[in-house]
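Morning run. Coffee first, then this:
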Amino acid sequence: MVLSEAQLTAAPMTLGARPEPVSPFVLWSAEDLLPVEDIALAEEDRGLFVHLLQDPDALVKRMLDPTRIQSTLLGSLLVMVSSMSVFALAAGSGIGLDAPGLFRATALLPLNTLLAVAAALGPAYATSILVAARMPMARLVTAMTSALAAGSVILAALSPLPYVLLELDPVWAGPLSLVGSFAAAAMLSGIRVRRTLMAMAVAVRRASLDDPAVELPDEVAHRVGILARMTMVVLAFTVSLSFWAFDALV
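And here it is:
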């Protein structure tokens, strides 16, 4: 349908949504003169690995979805085990381990982390009950595992540093680089645990009240903060204890 000259003249006055006036030298159809509608693009799922590193809120949505929490847990475990194995291989090579020693290190380091998560579950869950912030066990396990997976990725990214420094200075710089790498990964894991638990509490409250803008009351945020801090402390203790007990990089 082509509009008449009178319609073309009146159209720019009635369509305030168009950002600029139409050209007087072009015939415009009725469809062309309709207001431009905003197209709501669907949220792109960039994958679990990207969510682990960049988007804790998207990771929380995965955990709150009963159909995706299992795949999120298994994916986090896979990322954690593979990243720890890469770091153990690099650090073990820098130390000078032989083939059996490298195999032992790449097997024990991920196992240490898994045992640490298992050992931390009981105290963390007990803390959630004591502060009246009880979480379903599946969500608590997934939150802790995903946080350690994010830290493990950083640990794998830092693996060239201890490899080189252990080759150059196995007495001072090499061991210090190992400690620094583990400290950086632990710090990121702790930050991620706290952010994940806080984001999950906010998401659950908004879903319960059907209000996308509501925030946690101060008293609730305080209890969730206690749970997050205690989870960080327990994880740090169990991970340190498991690494000391098994001594993988020897």
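The chain has two domains: 5-36, 43-246. Good start to the day.
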